[in-house]
Amino acid sequence: MAQLILEQVTQQFGRHVAVADISLHIPDGEFWVLMGPSGCGKSTILRTVAGLLPVQQGRIFFGDRCVNHVPARERDVAMVFQNYALYPHMTVAENLAFGLKMRGVPPQERQRRVQWVAELLGLTNLLTRKPGQLSGGQQQRVALGRAMVRQPQVFLLDEPLSNLDSRLRDQTRTELKRLHQEFPTTTLYVTHDQTEAMTLADQLVVMHQGRIQQIGSPQHLYQQPANKTVALFLGHPPMNILPARLFPGVPPTVEVGVRPENIAITSPEKSDLRGRVVIVEPLGQVNLVQIEVAPDLLVWVKTRQNPLVREWVGLVIPKEAHYYFDIATGLCQMLMSI
Ligand SMILES: Nc1ncnc2c1ncn2[C@@H]1O[C@H](COP(=O)(O)OP(=O)(O)O)[C@@H](O)[C@H]1O
Ligand SMILES: [Mg+2]
């Protein structure tokens, strides 16, 4: 195992800059998640670390060793893709052992490691089956197992759960977290799914248009987003962004952000901010309520209260729940004297 370092990595396709000035320092054994919308450069970073794309600018280190010129085969990384391909004519056991065989690991050691990983992933009873006889979730576990069995220095996963149905995705996500706690391999995990990102990451790297927006623990990024992009990316429903004019005394050069769970509903005469309930979506424990506070201005509220559709309500937002975003730059200003 090893720490993984990226120093000012920039990658272009022709004239298109896919990722710019990416610097990461992932300590040995940590699980980091790269997150951002489709096309923001996540896979490009992973493929560059794996050695599938040559480094154009910057440097990559595994431990103390610069691997810029080390070919992919010799980098000792294991990568799991969204579209994993198992060998259809081989059994699960053979699929798991294949990479080890190619690397010249002796048969006894191969068998030992295959058994170990099969037990970990609940594949022991499936070892003699072929991929065609497995469910999607089982196949995905084999794909993960095939990477884990190598015991690589660095583990790279590119949206590995996105082909699974939601129940299986939840299960496998929990499983991954447990596995990493037991065997902390340095991991860089790519997803655009915020639940995966929030639940798995030691540190979360939010990307947008090829650039890092912010790095921090999921909680830190949720509570102290550096800018509007990060704020809008984490949280469901997303943070409400409201014009300053709704808040007396707030300078017009900023917008006000408020998370749906920080708004309370009251009777209309008890607040200066009022609106009509448009939609109520019950989630069981809470309701997602959409309220029209001005023409074409909808606010999401996450609440245990049960307002009625078309009801007039007041909204209460404690001052400490406000975020202020500079309209010109999108930067979050946490402390403003108003
Ligand atoms: N092989 C390629 N040739 C040209 N452009 C590419 C290639 N791979 C990726 N890109 C472009 O680089 C950008 C980042 O892509 P990618 O890293 O795949 O994003 P993500 O994984 O975040 O969806 C996108 O604009 C994409 O179109
Ligand atoms: Mg991708």
- Radius of gyration (Å): 24 Å
* Integer count of domains: 2
The residue fraction in helices comes out at 10-25%
Order of helices and strands: EEEHEEEHHHEHEHEEHHEEEEEEEEE
Bound ions, cofactors and other small molecules, one mention each: adenosine-5'-diphosphate, magnesium ion
Give the N-to-C terminal Cα separation. Answer: 51 Å
Low-confidence stretches: none
Count the DSSP helices: 8
What's the overall average pLDDT, rounded? 93
Beta percentage is 25-35%
The largest sheet, given as strand count, sense and whether it forms a barrel, is: 6 strands, mixed
- The number of strands is 19
Please state the second-level CATH architecture of the largest domain. 3-Layer(aba) Sandwich
> Which outline best applies?
globular
Structure description:
With 338 residues, the protein is an alpha+beta fold. The protein folds into two domains: 4-225, P-loop containing nucleotide triphosphate hydrolases (Rossmann fold, 3-Layer(aba) Sandwich); 236-333, Nucleic acid-binding proteins (OB fold (Dihydrolipoamide Acetyltransferase, E2P)), CATH 2.40.50. It is 25% helix and 32% strand. It has helices at 42-50, 92-102, 107-120, 136-148, 166-182, 194-200, 218-223, 228-233, and strands at residues 4-13, 16-26, 31-35, 57-62, 65-66, 77-80, 154-158, 186-191, 203-208, 211-216, 240-243, 254-258, 264-266, 274-282, 287-294, 297-303, 312-316, 323-326, 332-333. A six-stranded mixed beta sheet has the order 6-7-8-3-9-10, with helices on both faces. The chain has a five-stranded antiparallel beta sheet with strand order 13-17-14-15-16, with no helix packed on it. A four-stranded antiparallel beta sheet has the order 2-1-4-5, with helices on one face. The longest helix is centred in the middle third of the chain and has 17 residues, at 166-182. The relative contact order is 0.12. The mean pLDDT is 93. Bound molecules: adenosine-5'-diphosphate (ADP) and magnesium ion (MG).
